[in-house]
Amino acid sequence: MKERIEIIEGDITKQQVDAIVNAANQSLLGGGGVDGAIHRAAGPELLEECRKIGGCPTGEARVTKGYKLPAKWVIHTVGPIWRGGNNNEDQLLASCYQNSLKAAVEIGAKTVAFPSISTGAYGFPLERATKIALTETKKFLEKDQSIEKVVFVCFGTQAFDTYNKIFDQVFSS
Ligand code: ADP
Questions:
Q1: In the chain, which stretches have pLDDT less than 70?
Q2: Which of 37, 53, 56, 154 is the most buried (most CB within 10 A)?
């Protein structure tokens, strides 16, 4: 099972996978960070399709095509904004991973790449978010056989080191 999870350092827009996950905002109309990078790489048709969807609540996920991206699909999920940790942030972030993976199964994606949802502009502490990302993915893959690989794309060495450290913790217990 742990062979189905890969941690790399890189740019999610370059990943040759069936689906990439976007850390979007509720409007789905683009923004900064990874969201902006995905929209730039996919081209204007992505925004057009997102506009038709009309938004997405925090913790849920919506699927679009990938347009000019190497990935066929984009799964847009909306992470929680960190407000100190007592405002359901953990559960909402867990829902992002659960619902994104569920969406990936529904569209038949065998390979899926995730960014570190909520840990940029939304301020979620990186270690805490990483633990949720890896724990929820492990739980999901234990029950699902259709997804062959989940790639965590770390933007920078700090995220890469954190993911590797937490991976060892999550898979040693
Ligand atoms: P959020 O609003 O959910 O916090 P951000 O886009 O601000 O979303 O940040 C989420 C994570 O995505 C951060 O860890 C950031 O470093 C990372 N990131 C930014 N650009 C890219 C990219 N091109 N590929 C992968 N990860 C990225």
A1: 173
A2: 154
pLDDT, tens digit, 9 for 90 and up, residues 36-79 = 999 999 999 999 999 999 999 999 999 999 999 999 999 999 99
* pLDDT on residue 1: 86
From the CB of 36, is ligand 1 less than 6 Å away?
Answer: no
Q: How far apart are CA 15 and CA 18, in angstroms?
A: 9
Residues classed as catalytic: 35
- Locate 91 and state its tokens: 């559960």
The confidence score (pLDDT) of residue 173 equals 65
Is 117's C-beta closer than 6 angstroms to any atom of ligand 1?
yes
Give Dmax over CA atoms of the chain in angstroms: 45
